[in-house]
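Q: How do we represent a protein-ligand complex in a form that can be generated token by token?
A: Start from the inputs.
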Amino acid sequence: MLPEEVTEYLALHRQEHLEKLFEVLRFPSISSQSAYEADSLACAEHIAEHLRGLGFSAELHPWRKHPIILARSTPEIADPSAPTVLFYAHYDVQPPDPVDLWTSGPFEPTIRDGAIYARGASDDKGLLMSCINGCEAFIRTVGRLPMNVLFFFEGEEEIGSPELEDFITATADDLKSDFAVVTDMGFFAPGFPTIMTGLRGLVYLELTLNGPSADLHSGQHGGAVVNPLNALAKMIAAMHDETGSVTLPGFYDDVVEPESVELEQWKSLPFDEGEYADFVGTALVGGERGRSVLERRWSRPTLDCNGITGGYQGQGAKTVLPACATAKISMRLVPNQRPEKVLDAFSEFVSANTPAGIRANVEVLSRSRPFVVSPDTPAVGAVGEAMREAFGAETALARAGGSVPISELIQRVLKVDPIVTGFALPDDNIHSPNERLQLEQFHTGAVAAAAMLNNLAGLK
Ligand SMILES: [Zn+2]
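Then emit the structure tokens for the protein with zinc ion bound:
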């Protein structure tokens, strides 16, 4: 159990921790816009300085446009022979647009109705600070941390962590850890602390079909040549069969079903398909027949067309037979699918379905692997127990349909199973106007982070 003085400290220092968080939230560390590069750097420096004040050796590693903060506990605050946990979070944020929909300024943190409103409050600065505060409580009361802590705070998560694999590979020796906790997620529902045991991977590509050498008059030439848009529509339609399954050759070959304990857990989650249908505003008939909605969102791979362009898109009619047509297509991958193999299957399907008179081209825009940890992993139990101690409710095991690229990299490159969790709530409006983090989630999150240190240290 967590030493009482640690929880007491966190209860007594709520106001101070809130002010510290506000300082971090005031930096517009928007990673996608170059105008904010100096603000991002200042934000990283501010966090590093705070960590130095607590006894960490904190360094900024220049990386692409926004530095990575690496901060390690020094021998003054942790026994160097104790095991190490790597905590990952990110300090960059999404642009606040549309700004006029915010009730208070996105970079002027404000408390309303028991929540902190600001861009980055929930994703991910609030969680980042909860983890630091959990450490602070140990340092200021017990005098030292129960184990070594290595903070890995990234500044480009919101733009997809480009080239992060290169950084992790190059610094793998420095990043060596016994455990890793990724705090960039949240509760499945209020009152349901959650560990994500799986995330889907992604292949994103652009498929272009080229036909005639230039746009043609659809009256003069229609009927004589193959229309690339017609061909593209037909090809995309053929990518699913009537049961909702993807028809690419061998697409499902490497798919591993979730463990039965996971499937049981999912059934016990507070998830109502009717309410979810209301939330998304349409009937839940997409995806594979015979699979639950949560399976279709979490443990089954998908193929979706994200946009089609070609021909005339302006006002009114223009009788054109387009020279080319393009579709953006995303595929969400699940364990143990590999992006390379799925891409081969995609290309094979395209060549087999390209009609005479059409040339096809596939351009890959991004790819990432899926991620999964076994629910039996000891660290899953230790972190789950820490969340239960702090929040007073059993920790649920769930998955997420999206990706946090670092998770799979930590597992594959650093050979540590990361525990993906967090203190956000589903209605925190992340990436949207009026992003918020409930005060209680922020403060109790620090208790949970402290309990994680305590419990993980007990595993070795
Ligand atoms: Zn995030």
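The radius of gyration is 24 Å. The mean pLDDT is 96.
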